[in-house]
Write a structure and sequence with these properties.
TIM Barrel, globular, binds iron/sulfur cluster
């Protein structure tokens, strides 16, 4: 466990399409596998992955994303607290121990209730795996502290076309002193907003190497105590 910074180019459209092809096949295979087992089973298997989207907006502007703040066509919606607590209570009653994420197609930190929701979910579902993705723009030291005390995995999608840490994420990492006593695995995923099929615009290897070196330093610096 600890903080890892992972370089992710996302820059080569051809590679993305190949990946999507592979994911399509993997998706088809897994659906067929699930359907075969589901139809031959006498009992309905429990689900093992849950995403709860407590509000349906993102504050970022990634041009490739259909729910970026300029393109989202969904009617704004916020889940009621009664519904949220009802879902958690039902999961608690069945001793749910799969994966649970309080986000889906949105930026979870836009919801001012999200930290108390996460604390509540952790308390009632101690055996579940609690995961969150955020774009990190609204992250600060206080929120980070609550998140890493209650999550098993926190992934920060750090969107910056120069593979730099965005200011909010940099500030959090700089202000998080070692040693870290949290058990949460924190991954900073370095991502580009701009995606290009032109090879000359793909990230240079030297850029990636800088990030790998930085990753090693950061990992050595930030490894948590377990
Ligand atoms: S941060 Fe994620 S959800 Fe928000 S616009 Fe970018 S890709 Fe879409």
């Amino acid at each position: 466990m600890g903080i890892r910074i992972v370089p992710t180019s996302g820059a080569d459209l051809n590679q993305s399409n190949k990946l999507l092809d592979r994911l399509d096949k993997a998706g088809r295979d897994s659906v067929q596998y699930f359907a075969k087992n589901f139809l031959s089973s006498e009992t309905i298997p429990d689900f093992c992955t849950i995403e709860i989207e407590t509000q349906n907006r993102c504050n970022n502007d990634c041009p490739f994303c259909p729910v970026n703040r300029h393109n989202d066509t969904r009617k704004p919606a916020v889940m009621t607290e009664d519904l949220f607590y009802s879902i958690i209570n039902q999961l608690c009653a069945m001793d749910y121990h799969g994966s649970i994420s309080l986000f889906s197609n949105n930026e979870p930190l836009l919801d001012g209730r999200i930290l108390k929701f996460i604390e509540h979910a952790r308390k009632l579902l101690p055996n579940a795996k609690h995961t969150l993705y955020t774009n990190g723009t609204l992250l600060n030291a206080e929120k980070f502290s609550v998140l890493v005390r209650n999550l098993d995995l926190l992934i920060v999608d750090n969107y910056d076309d120069n593979f730099k840490l965005i200011p909010s994420v940099k500030k959090v990492l700089d202000s998080t002193p070692p040693p870290h006593d949290f058990k949460c695995d924190v991954q900073i995923s370095m991502r580009k907003k701009i995606r290009s099929s032109i090879p000359a615009q793909a990230p240079r290897l030297t850029d990636l190497m800088k990030k790998i070196n930085f990753d090693r330093n950061r990992r050595a610096f930030c490894r948590s105590r377990k």
